[in-house]
């Protein structure tokens, strides 16, 4: 499986971001609301760090479709992320961007974002999503959890019935490498 990146942007700017990714040598694979998934292609890391339209650059883990709105969703998310192979392409990207993490177990936290635009609403909170995604990562990789001063942040978005999971590389428009020093901003 190819290693994929995920870039986030404001809704309505996805086409602009995808054009910018392609102009830099990236290969756009999928466009979703506020997100562009792409292969690095011929783009180099310094170029990706400077994408003007991107809020964040992440190592894409996976989309999980048809997530129910009842509490069964939490176990579905966890089960979908227990597969070590699902994480491996994103971890290869993380190692390239964060060579300081090689040879050790990094600490991590999960930040979840949830939005439901149609009724019925989700029957669980973002904090519960974070817990189940974090449990899957801990069980799969044995990484220790740390809510502050963590090495890696995993992002989980749940928009209606589709979940997106990715690992933060660059956080915010200032294109700073996402490290524990920048996490508290």
Automatic annotation (TrEMBL):
Q: Which Gene3D superfamilies match?
A: 3.30.2130.30
Q: Does the keyword tRNA processing apply?
A: yes
Question: What top-level branch of life does the organism fall under?
Answer: Eukaryota
InterPro entries found in the cross-reference section? THUMP_dom
Listed under GO cellular component are: cytoplasm
Q: Which GO terms describe its molecular function?
A: RNA binding; tRNA (guanine) methyltransferase activity
**What is this protein identified as?**
THUMP domain-containing protein
Q: What is the lineage of its organism?
A: Eukaryota, Viridiplantae, Chlorophyta, Pyramimonadophyceae, Pyramimonadales
